[in-house]
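PROTEIN DESIGN WORKSHEET
SECTION A - STRUCTURE
LENGTH: 418
TOKENS:
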């Protein structure tokens, strides 16, 4: 019989890892809120056209990686491979494209890639989109937000930046790049030839040494950038310097999604991982116009949370709950145990209370409390239930007190900073 198991490239995030995800997400979320961003939640499923028109035909994501299916009425739907296109659609659909929008989102995304460390078929992104501001100041602010996040996470990934100009600049550049590459056709493998045919700029970030060598003398996009784009980039770089942000200009940085123009950037971890881009983004001033016929300048970035966690190496402080384990010795006292648990929960959101329903002997229940790393064990036996009281044992010091029900509040207030 077929063994049922999780789908390849889609992993469970078990409770011990969930707390790492949650604490990182909380840091990213509170940072974005401090920069004026508001949360948006878009559907996991969208009309496939949205991604084809935004990310672009000829990109790996659209050509090979989308989970797409046809609905009963013949419409094609895709699981979202990224969040920018959905935000753009949502802004248009909600009628808010005339105002400035600062949105953040966090959740699962889907790409049918070859799974490996740091690369999954269901992965998690924390992203922001900032729409309605054309000025380079917005580009600087977005980088300041990432800097703020890295400081809170106590990491220091390397920032790479580039400008890819506007679409006219890119057209001219692409034409010359193709002409240059044609001279080396015999050195390219089939997949490279496909890339050059469909999306020539993608060849620039090839990891193959042979191609890197060919590219040394290739035309540079920086020579094709219009005055406006060049000035935008210059002022952006100047802002980074003024804000003490370290960066490296990487003329080969082009990004794998078609919608970008002008500023593009990536943060790379500086460990040995092969999948090392933990955050990426840039401007997409023409995306609204191309899909919805509305001119709205915009920019944003997304952080790959799974990669970030691998990069962080789990070196993070959690805001741990204070755990109470409730040991109940007789079945008839479960209702009393639940009443006591409810009473304690009221005092702090940070209290986590677990009732033992096994009715096993006290020693066994204390052993379980220990195993679960409970901070306190509340003991309820015949005497406690009869006397409206509890015994509370500090699992660290083994100190044990008897408290009557109407004094629980005072007891908690003296023991904990609430
Ligand atoms: P992206 O470069 O495709 O950009 O993805 C952003 C980040 O998501 C990557 O740098 C990486 O950390 C993570 N990521 C991507 N694919 C995977 C995967 N298969 N497994 C694990 N992590 C992955 C975007 O998605 C753009 N929407 C970013 C953006 C927002 N640009 C403007 N606004």
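SECTION B - SEQUENCE
RESIDUE ASSIGNMENT:
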């Amino acid at each position: 019989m077929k063994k049922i198991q999780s789908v390849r490239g889609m992993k469970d995030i078990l409770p011990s890892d969930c707390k790492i995800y949650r604490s990182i997400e909380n840091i990213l979320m509170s940072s974005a809120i401090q920069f004026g961003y508001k949360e948006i939640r878009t559907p996991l499923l969208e009309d496939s056209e949205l991604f084809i028109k935004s990310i672009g035909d000829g990109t790996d994501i659209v050509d090979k990686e989308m989970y797409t299916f046809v609905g009963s009425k013949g419409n094609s739907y895709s699981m979202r491979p990224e969040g920018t296109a959905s935000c753009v659609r949502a802004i248009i659909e909600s009628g808010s494209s005339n105002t400035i929008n600062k949105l953040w989102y966090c959740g699962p995304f889907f790409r049918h890639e070859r799974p490996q460390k740091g690369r999954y078929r269901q992965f998690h992104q924390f992203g922001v989109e900032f729409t309605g501001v054309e000025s380079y100041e917005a580009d600087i602010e977005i980088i300041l937000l990432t800097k703020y996040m890295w400081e809170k996470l106590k990491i220091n990934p390397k920032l790479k930046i580039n400008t890819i100009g506007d679409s006219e600049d890119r057209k001219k550049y692409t034409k010359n790049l193709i002409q240059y590459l044609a001279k080396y056709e015999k050195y390219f493998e089939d997949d490279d030839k496909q890339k050059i045919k469909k999306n020539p700029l993608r060849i620039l970030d090839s990891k193959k040494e042979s191609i890197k060598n060919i590219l040394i003398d290739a035309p540079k996009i920086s020579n094709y950038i219009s005055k406006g784009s060049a000035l935008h980039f210059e002022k952006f770089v100047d802002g980074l310097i003024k804000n003490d942000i370290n960066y490296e200009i990487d003329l080969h940085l082009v990004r794998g999604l078609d919608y970008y123009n002008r500023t593009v950037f990536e943060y790379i971890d500086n460990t040995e991982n092969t999948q090392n881009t933990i955050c990426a983004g840039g401007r997409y001033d023409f995306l609204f116009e191309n899909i919805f016929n509305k001119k709205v300048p915009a920019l944003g970035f997304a952080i790959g949370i799974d990669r970030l966690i691998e990069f962080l190496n789990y070196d993070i402080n959690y805001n741990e709950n204070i755990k109470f384990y409730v040991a109940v010795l007789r079945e008839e006292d479960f209702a009393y145990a639940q009443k006591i648990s409810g009473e304690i929960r009221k005092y702090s959101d940070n209290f986590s209370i677990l009732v033992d329903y096994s009715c096993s002997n006290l020693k066994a229940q204390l052993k379980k409390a220990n195993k679960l790393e409970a901070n306190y064990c509340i003991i309820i036996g015949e005497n406690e239930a009869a006397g409206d009281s509890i015994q509370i044992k500090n699992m660290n010091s083994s100190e044990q007190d008897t408290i009557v029900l109407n004094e629980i509040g005072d007891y908690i207030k003296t023991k904990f900073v609430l």
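SECTION C - NOTES
The first helix runs from residue 15 to 34.
The pocket of histidyl-adenosine monophosphate is lined by residues 82-84, 111, 113, 118-120, 123, 125, 127, 129, 257, 277-282, 300-302, 304, 306-307 (CB under 6 Å).
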